[in-house]
Design brief:
Elements: H1 2-36, H2 42-66
Helix pairs in contact: 1-2
C-alpha cells in the first residue's frame, strides 16, 4: 500500500514538472516575441523574465525530488 502511494506521488511530481516546463517554454517564447517587437515594454519584459526564473527554480526543485540521492 505504501509503494502505491509513493508511485502516485512520483507520478504527480512528473505531471507537475511537465506543466512547469511547458509554462517555462511559453514564457520563453513570449519574451522572445516581445524582444523582437519594435520597442518592448521593459517593465513587462523584466516581469516575464523574473517569472521565468521562478519557474526554473521550481523545475529544479521538482527534478531534485524525482532524482534519488546517491551516497558517494
Amino acid at each position: 500500500m505504501n509503494i502505491s502511494s509513493e508511485m502516485n506521488f512520483e507520478e504527480m511530481l512528473r505531471v507537475k514538472l511537465e506543466v512547469l516546463k511547458r509554462e517555462h517554454r511559453d514564457l520563453d517564447e513570449a519574451i522572445s516575441a516581445l524582444e523582437l517587437s519594435g520597442r518592448p515594454d521593459q517593465l513587462t519584459l523584466r516581469r516575464l523574465k523574473k517569472q521565468k526564473l521562478s519557474l526554473k527554480d521550481q523545475i529544479v526543485k521538482f527534478e531534485d525530488q524525482l532524482i534519488p540521492d546517491i551516497i558517494a
